[in-house]
Amino acid sequence: MNENQISSARANLRRAIAAFEAIGGLARAETRPWTPLPPGTRRGPGQDHARLSRTLCALRHLTDQFGEISFGDMLSAAHEQYRLLDAGYIRPAAAPKVRMACEAIGICERNIAAPRQYRGGFWPPDTLSYLHGYAILHELRFESAVASLTTGLIADLRHYADSKGTGFQEALAAGLRAHARQRLRAEGPFQTGQDPARLPAPEYPLSAAAQFQPTATNQGVVTSPADAEWLLIRTAARNREREQRGFSGASPRDVDDQRVLAEALAETCGQSAGEILTGLAPRIAARVTQIEHGPASAAELGREHGRAGTQPYCDIEIDGDATALLRALGETEWMTDANHGYRVSLVIAYADAYKQASQHGPACR
Questions:
Q1: Is the pLDDT at 327 greater than 60, yes or no?
Q2: For strand 215-217 and strand 220-222, is the pairing parallel, antiparallel, or unpaired?
Q3: Closest CA to 316 of 298, 329, 294, 291
Q4: Where are the domains positioned within the chain?
Q5: Helical pair 142-164 and 168-187, crossing angle rounded to 10 deg
Q6: What is the C-alpha separation between 26 and 299, in angstroms, rounded?
Q7: Reduced to 3 states, what is the DSSP secondary structure of residue 217?
Q8: Cβ pair 236, 284 in contact under 8 A
């Protein structure tokens, strides 16, 4: 990571912390009696739109810091909260929501511009302590409390947008585009790890008139339709394979990524996300089969290497670097919480087969 990437990563963390302070402010505001918001600084619609967009961008950075939080789930839940409170109308019931959103935006803006200085971990200790107390009071896990507060703030921000006459969806789209660009500067583009010459031809090649926008996923920032297609196939297959094995559902963050990637390709190709997934169905099914047979393939490779006395592709005690093995098996994308279990199963299958085949001989070390 170069100096520019380090600087960008710090800026993104600062945005996440600013959003954390904002939901902390929301939690504190819930315990205060509501009073009408006094007249504030008058701003033009463009300024209100920009402030709203920056706050939504910061909230998206906040969710990057929590492995169990799904931004897509929070958007859906926030929409339902907004809808239940006379969506689209500025009524007395919505007034406290507008005030809390306005306060949260101000907190977020101030902390982005001039972050507080403190020692220890990167979360502000007083806000961290308060939110842990909030979670205990509401009988929630800490991440669930963060998700609940973030959901509530997003709903409040929709009421704020209504009160200012600015478009919430447009501000959200602008915030997510900014989030993708900011992560791209910090992380660089997502790497499939595959030789581009060996990748299958894209099902949906980019037309001459279209432009693929950087798309942020929980697995990295995708910058080309070919990479988006490759990652979508693998993500959708992982979701389907989990369902076939009887799990209650796919990883929420994988569901987010499947939706985001399908929508990005759909926008590029002028089709719906459903049509994109339908067109890729045969390749998704093939990847599901590959996942199902993965441990057996890893074991066969382990037996082959053990019998031949080949230096093992990973530490056969299941520790250390397994990059060589995973690359040999075609598992080249970044490690995530969602694919970690499958990769461990490959390493275990390979190592066990290697040890048995080599009968603990000299090649086993």
A1: yes
A2: antiparallel
A3: 298
A4: 3-187, 212-283, 293-358
A5: 130
A6: 52
A7: strand
A8: yes
Phi, psi of 222 (to 5 degrees): -90, 135
Contacts of 278 (CB under 8 A, 6+ apart): none
> Cα separation of 164 and 53, whole Å?
13
What does pTM read for this prediction? 0.87
Q: Could you tell me which residues come within 8 angstroms of residue 90 by beta carbon, excluding any fewer than 6 positions away? A: 98, 159, 162, 163
How many other CB atoms are there within 10 angstroms of residue 221's CB atom? Answer: 21
Q: Which pLDDT band, with edges at 50, 70 and 90, does 365 fall under?
A: very low
Six-digit token string for 173: 């789209």
State the DSSP string of 103-149: HHHHHHHHHHHS----SSSSS-HHHHHHHHHHHHHTT--HHHHHHHH
Instruction: Report yes or no: 276 and 269 within 8 Å, Cβ to Cβ.
Output: yes
| Whole-Å CA distances, 299 to 245, 325, 328, 345, 359 | 21, 11, 13, 10, 15
Judge contact between 157 and 168, C-beta under 8 A: yes
Measured distance CA(339)–CA(328) in Å, rounded = 16
Tokens of 127: 């806000």
